[in-house]
Amino acid sequence: MIDKSKPIPLYYQVQEMIIKLIEDGSYSINNPLPSEKELIKQFGVSRTTIRQAVDNLVNLGYLERRRGVGTFVAKREKKHYWELETLRSFSEEFEKKGYEVSTKLLSIEKQNTPAELFSVFKEIDEVFKIERLRFLNNRPAILVTTYVPVNIASDLDKYDLSNVSLFEILRTKYNVKIAYGKKEFRAQLVSAEDAKLLEMDENQAIQLVKTESYDNNGKIVDYSISRDIGDLSVYKVTLNYQD
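Request: output the structure for the sequence above.
Response:
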């Protein structure tokens, strides 16, 4: 309920309560929002407060105004949550959450280690460069470029990485076990080429995620650069307080 004794603005309290009603199904997608008069009665606040809350929810994409009809609950894409406490493959991460996961292998080729990756691969001269487009529930979600040292998986290009996890291949075919990883996050605008593959507008933001994976001996196993659709992927981490 609305608590007028709290320092939290009333419009924000109303806004959060409407979001909860949308998320629990009380306000259904594509159904009209209760009238302004009904909302005033329901929440016990002024017309100005209701209008500010509704305006914010329209801007956030929870509601949409239809000219001549009214305000409706909008259909929103489901967020894809990555748990950062454990390093998992894309398939492992999302299949356990009930998503339909699929992959399109765009290319795989053996090449000399790019100069910009010398600091990562150090003495390793050759790598496989793998380009994949990952889908969640049949929608493009992540475009990822992965580099794997040739010396740990010499014939990796014979496997169809559109149907099997790279981590699984490394583990079962080459006895390479990933022990830990490092991630770096950055926001940037999507490139024209990536926008086409991800079915995005060119002026939209993506999350650029760089991941280094290592075995128990501290040797690099793979290095990936993923471009995640910015409004779909959410990263969650639990932190322990250290005094």
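The radius of gyration is 23 Å.
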